[in-house]
Amino acid sequence: MADGDIKLEETWKFALETEFEDPYMADLKSFLVSEKKAGKLIFPKGSEYFRALDLTPLDEVKVVILGQDPYHGEGQAHGLCFSVRPGVRIPPSLVNIYKEMEADLGIAPAKHGFLEHWAEQGVLLLNSVLTVEEGKAAAHQGKGWERFTDAVIRTVNEECDGVVFILWGAYAQKKAAFVDEERHLVIKSAHPSPLSAHNGFLGSKPFSKANEYLQSIGKDPVDWELPETV
Q1: Residue 5: predicted pLDDT
Q2: Does 69 qualify as catalytic in the annotation?
Q3: Catalytic residue among 3, 59, 69, 180
Q4: Residue 59 is part of a domain; what is its CATH number?
Q5: Cβ neighbour number for residue 149 with a 10 Å cutoff
Q6: Of the residues 39, 118, 172, 189, which has the fewest C-beta atoms closer than 10 A?
Q7: What is the pLDDT of residue 4?
């Protein structure tokens, strides 16, 4: 899985070495290869499967935001949860994230949905499942990715100190239920989806809470304001 066109950032490569050696990852790779050979379009492209890890080295993780699946539309997914490529319409959940950020921090919504600026500051934007088939939401659930991303979260929990875990919705909260809340800050609320945002996401102030905690333990806050041009 880490061979060929896929390169993994060194701190993660070392920390997750046993995962890549486990048979389930070989099975996952075989599944992806067979799907591509069958002519199915897989998002994101292979070099971006681990983009979240590549942009946010293990020793730089300050915040973890969990998503579920990559976007399954053409040109959307690029390896970071909730983020889309420049020029792509901003998805509804991210629209609500921007609304909450404006209410919380006074930051006007960006005109794009490209979140790499966050990732480069230590915000791990991790989906539970790292690939999807075009037009088929959740098509790659249960193929092995969940086990791999569980290992990513477990690694952060055990090897880092003072990380903010922002868990939106029941799925993310269940996935990261083992995080040590004495060692880290866990922020929970409803999901920013239009179906649930008004049930506790809007008004939850996750961005200011995260920064207040980071500053309280001597870490730099996250600059949540996205650059206008990308």
Answers
A1: 45
A2: yes
A3: 69
A4: 3.40.470.10
A5: 22
A6: 39
A7: 45
